[in-house]
Each structure stands twice: as C-alpha cells, then as structure tokens.
What does this fold into?
Amino acid sequence: MTRMRAAALAAAYSMPDIGYAIRGDVDERFGGFGIRIGSRVYAVLDELAALGLVEVFDSSELWPARPKNRRGSRRAFRITARGVQALTEYLRTPLDDSSAVSLTADVQLRLTAVPPSDTSTLRHILEMCDDALRRLIAAEEHAARADASLPERMHADLVGDTLDALREWLRGARKRLAEMEDGRG
It folds into this structure.
C-alpha cells in the first residue's frame, strides 16, 4: 500500500466524508510528510473502493442539509472493516529506514494514522522505531568519525538533526500511548 492510500484510509477512518473533505484532512494531517493528495483524491478513493477498503455512499445519509452537486448527490466515503484491517496491516509493516528522512516521513505518517484506541499497533510502531533508530544512529556515528570526508560529516549533521526531530515525535507518541493505557487518551 502506498503512503497516499494509507493517508486516505486514515482520513476516512477518522470521519466518513465527501472526497474534498478527505482531501483537506489528508493534506492537513499528512502534507508536512510529503503526502498531498490534491486533485487525485477521487482517483485514490475510487481505487480504495474498488479494493473494498472504503464504501461509497450518498452524503445525504449523514448530512441531509448539505448542498448537492449538479447531479443531485455527493459521493461520500467511509472505511470498511476490510479497510481497517488493511490500514492496521500497513501500519505494522516494516518501516522504510533506507534514510533518516524516509524513516522520519514513514514514522510520522504512521503515528498520525494510528486509530485513537489502537494501543497494540501504536506500541508495535514504537518498537519498530526503536530498532530503526538504533541502526540509523550506528550509521550516523560511523559517518561522523574523525576520518570521514567533509560531505560525509555534513550528511551526518543533517541526519543528526532529522533524528533529533524523530526522537521528539517518538517522545510525544510514548506519552500518548501511556495516556491511552491509563484511560486518559
């Protein structure tokens, strides 16, 4: 599953809505991670519907007073049980740790997409993050050695900044997990 599909599924999970509202949610929640759905919103949602991951319905079922389009209806989308399963499976797949930037984008998407009460998946993501961070930190320490070339040291500085941001995200996610487990989240 692509990150864009996962983001659209997460948006449909959080609140069934019309495509343009889902687009706004995806762009707002995940746009900072390089995921912008924009004009592709209906193509992505139609792909998800063809896979049985979202259900298409007339928006008047939920919002009778909402304005209709020129055809007299507005398509809305909600996640199906199969979609919830696919989203959970995606969230539990190995992280993209090919680089610090890829890992950060992947982790941030997943942490933002975890359903609010799914402590098991959130804990699993945090465990995967810890493993990936250990590998990246080891690579960063190797690149920062004294005999490294200037480009290697500059890259290590960039990776270090990215990893610092990722650590901050993970601290917030661990706090969220603790609150969820204590019944406060």
In short: The first helix runs from residue 3 to 14. The two ends are 28 Å apart (CA to CA).
